[in-house]
Amino acid sequence: MATLRLEVVTPDKTVVKSEVEMVVCPGVEGEFGVLSKHISLLSALKIGVLRYRISSKDEYVFISGGFADVNNNVLTVLAESAEIACDIDTARAQNARERAEKRMAVQDDTVDAARAEAALQRAIMRLNVAVRR
Ligand code: ATP
Asked: Per the UniProt record, which residue ranges are transmembrane (predicted)?
């Protein structure tokens, strides 16, 4: 099957660098798929799950939002943080979820609700990816 190159990069490391059969990205306006020879594209990504197919098997990656750039059969994802399923520390994500839920339960000026909501989304998405390992 025709392939494209997928590179998922954070400020710390390259998380994925593979020839893959297809990718589904969590775009801010909805999920979108990318196959070999896709037209050039630049899209913002939201906190979510990136899925790619390699040797007919699906793999899952947590993405904390960022950008996807498709050019010359290469899809580059730049994310603040990203982890493949087996690198996710489930206990840490559960703690992060509990912390965020407690913050969101407090409704006063000391809590940045948008920040707590984003932390909760990251934790939930990490837990969703972790079960795919
Ligand atoms: P926490 O509150 O647990 O730090 P966070 O959502 O604030 O979670 P981020 O700011 O998204 O964390 O990430 C900071 C760094 O920690 C990144 O390098 C990210 O890959 C890593 N990281 C965060 N949570 C986890 C996790 N559950 N498992 C593995 N790595 C994680």
From this structure: none
